[in-house]
Write a structure and sequence with these properties.
Length: 357
């Protein structure tokens, strides 16, 4: 491979802001694997956000990119998997598997798509120093006849359109809007863009905690919601506490600590088979490796208000929830899925302009 921009390249990043800023180029915030695609003839490499290759995990996408993108080009975008008209991040994570046979089975069963939103090089020209507006024009020209599973991300400079996208696109599994300064150069690994994500709050049961790696203080709170059958389901964690707060939480939660997990709604957490019928902490996965997944059980009585962006398949928080406050006025059994706001369905094909796989 001999390109004017060579791997590895870490992608340009965005910093979070509360509102959509004016005077920008706006795009959807895709919920997938960020990837920089390098193509030089028959050679294709899919770089990840960290710079490590993703190529072996998406053989069907490598083949599609060879057919659809310019022979010598470097593209920034997102690898996504769509099911039933919306993005499916869980299906995407399943693709990162050590067995080649499993990868190829999933490539046929849940094929991936690539959504391009920036162009870093074309033919023999590096475009890192070119303003965004010009890079976007070159991207649209280079991919004007592209077909699925490769797509060009919709973009607009109309803030009212961006606000409408922010409300509508969540129903297709996207998680906000990206705002890009029109004159910005491509700045690898720098937060030179802005991201605006949905934030909602929910009242949840704090049913356990994990210790922090630094010592006997709280690392993360384990959160639960009751389903319609009255079962407490593990929906995620809240973390990112200050050192002082971690120590305070240990003392605050001490009266609720159970001597052992027997009698706790998540008592079967260490039984791998139990995870098939309930959401429990410590689910076995290849991501955890040798990580200690043990936790301290609490009597499920304390209620906290947390902020979250959106739910994955309506079952769990997609990202780490942010602790807001305790809710002594709420009872644990009132913390149900029914309180959660469901986004209005929006077909992903309406965004991409062509059917998603």
């Amino acid at each position: 491979m001999d390109l004017p921009v060579m791997p590895p390249v870490k992608p340009m990043l965005a910093k979070a802001v509360a509102r959509i800023p004016p005077g920008m180029q706006y795009e959807a915030k895709w919920d997938g694997f960020r990837s920089i695609v390098f193509r030089d003839g028959d050679e294709v490499e899919l770089g990840s956000r960290t710079g490590k290759p993703l190529t072996r995990y998406f053989p069907e996408l490598v083949a599609a990119l060879k057919e659809r993108v310019p022979p010598r080009s470097v593209l920034d975008g997102e690898i996504v998997i769509a099911r039933e008209g919306r993005l499916d991040f869980d299906a995407l994570t399943e693709r990162i598997h050590p067995a080649d046979s499993r990868v190829r089975t999933l490539a046929a069963r849940t094929p991936a798509s690539f959504v391009a939103f920036d162009l870093l090089a074309l033919e023999d020209e590096a475009l890192l120093e070119v303003p965004l507006t010009d890079r976007r024009m070159l991207l649209e020209r280079a991919l004007r006849d592209v077909t699925a599973p490769v797509h060009v991300a919709p973009a607009t400079t109309d803030i009212e359109v961006a606000r409408r996208w922010f409300e509508q696109y969540e129903g297709a599994g996207l998680d906000g809007v990206i705002a890009k300064p029109p004159t910005v150069r491509y700045l690898p690994d720098q937060r030179a863009m802005f991201k605006i994500k949905h934030e909602r709050t929910a009242d949840v049961v704090v049913a356990g905690y994990r210790l922090h790696k630094s010592g006997p203080v709280v690392g993360s709170l384990l959160l639960g919601l009751y389903d319609e059958d009255g079962r407490l389901q593990h929906v995620g964690v809240s973390a990112a506490f200050s050192t002082k707060k971690r120590a305070e939480l240990i003392e605050e939660l001490r009266p609720l600590v159970m001597e052992d997990v027997a009698g706790h709604p998540w008592a079967a957490w260490s039984d791998e088979a139990a995870h098939a019928s309930a959401r429990l902490p410590g689910a076995p996965s290849r991501w955890s490796g040798g990580k200690d997944l043990s936790w301290v059980p609490l009597r499920p009585e304390r209620v906290a208000e947390v902020a979250y962006d959106h739910m994955e398949k309506g079952q769990r928080f997609r990202h780490t929830a942010r602790f807001r406050r305790w809710r002594p006025d709420r009872t644990a059994d009132s913390c149900t899925y029914a309180q959660l706001q469901e986004p209005v369905h929006y077909d992903l094909a309406e965004i991409l302009g062509s059917p998603a796989p």
